[in-house]
């Protein structure tokens, strides 16, 4: 029993002092009060000391969470930048592909108009007859009609920005119209060779001028589209 009392005074003196208060003498009461206060102080200090660690743990958790969020935002920003760069390259390639197809169509038709001009020159020099010129004009007319359709069907990447896509669509329309006018010009040549009316050659000149106007308009819009996607003026389609 005495042993239990000793343990009680060691571990719970603030309880023992109330239980034994009447049995204690003056000196015992004073010592008991001091010891109870001393033990109580350490108890409170221990509780408060242990409690201060919790906010630190929470703070550390918040720091880790904040760092994780920053890392996620940083990765998202990097991914977005890479996506933008990739899209920009795709847009450039799409515009350059349009230009490449346009030039290929023109080159395919150019040989027939060059042949017509050579036959006209030969006729003027007395080295060809009207039938030769008529035949070359007819071939050039058919080539122009074919190219008109091909120009109208040049594919345009649907993923291009709206403003760029609109410019290419307009350029495509201008090119198609330009070859429609060239077809009309060759018809006028054929009609002139048949009827020998000077007014018919004026129709030829008007159609050629209109064709050149539409070609210039298409070239301007293509240049605007190239600038819009960041293609340098010196950068050409391959």
Question: What is the general shape?
Answer: rod-shaped
What's the number of helices? 7
Largest sheet: number of strands, sense, barrel closure: none
CATH architecture of the largest domain: Up-down Bundle
Quickly describe the structure.
With 238 residues, the protein is mainly α. 85% of the residues lie in helices and 0% in strands.
General description of the model:
- The protein is mostly helical.
- It folds into two domains: about 1-50, no CATH class; about 95-230, Four Helix Bundle (Hemerythrin (Met), subunit A).
- It has seven helices and no strands.
- α1 packs across α2 (about 15-20).
- The longest helix has about 70 residues, at about 55-125.
Topology:
Blueprint: H1 2-11, H2 13-19, H3 26-51, H4 53-124, H5 130-152, H6 162-195, H7 198-228
Summarize this structure as a short list of keywords or feature phrases.
single chain; 238 residues; mainly alpha; Four Helix Bundle (Hemerythrin (Met), subunit A); 2 domains; 7 helices; 0% strand; rod-shaped
